[in-house]
Amino acid sequence: MYYFENGGKKLRSKILILRFPEDQAHEALVCNLAKDFRLTFAILHAEILPRKEGLLVLDLSGPAANFDSGVKYLKEKGVSVKTAAQEIIRDEASCVHCGACTAVCLTQALYIKRPEMTVEFDQDKCSACELCVVTCPVKAMIASPKNENFF
Question: Are residues 6 and 78 both part of a single domain?
């Protein structure tokens, strides 16, 4: 989380991972953050998952009070809000090296090592977007908080 001053106003910027329930996945909730709460955002990743719930990773910025009100608004609408203060861990014993996770990894933290054809995980490149977690058929990829710094 970043705090900075702009003309005497405290501003906040944080990368958030939002999970939208199926009934909210097609609503303009993030647009309302800009319109109603004067927040700015950069969409880092967006996806409608197989069960039709939405996943959105965004960098959200704005006045601290508005930021908190905007996050509260999302939660009231049933959106799960987490900070990116988490890490992805691979359970080596469960991984079958199928490669499904490599297809969705935007940062190439997960890749196939050749000629061995094993899946390798470079945690330093991981953005903790959780796409591998929902994709892994054997649930070898696990999202784990670095601390309890959730909203």
Answer: yes
Give the domain extent around 119: 86-145
pTM of the complete model beyond 0.70: no
Q: Which residues contact 61 (CB under 8 A, 6 or more apart)?
A: 11, 12, 13, 14, 39, 40, 41, 67
pLDDT in tens, 69-97: 999 999 999 999 987 777 899 999 999 99
Give which of 60, 78, 79, 86 is closest to 144, Cα–Cα: 86
Residues 56 and 110 grouped into a single domain:
no
- Give the orientation angle of helix 29-37 with respect to helix 64-76, to 10 degrees: 150
**Structural domain tally of the chain?**
2
Q: How many other β-carbons are positioned within 10 Å of the β-carbon of residue 128?
A: 24
Structure tokens at 87: 């890490």
Task: Return the amino acid letter for 128.
Answer: A
Instruction: Calculate the dihedral angle through the C-alpha atoms of 76, 23, 145, 63, rounding to the nearest 10 degrees.
Output: -40
**Cα separation of 134 and 103, whole Å?**
12
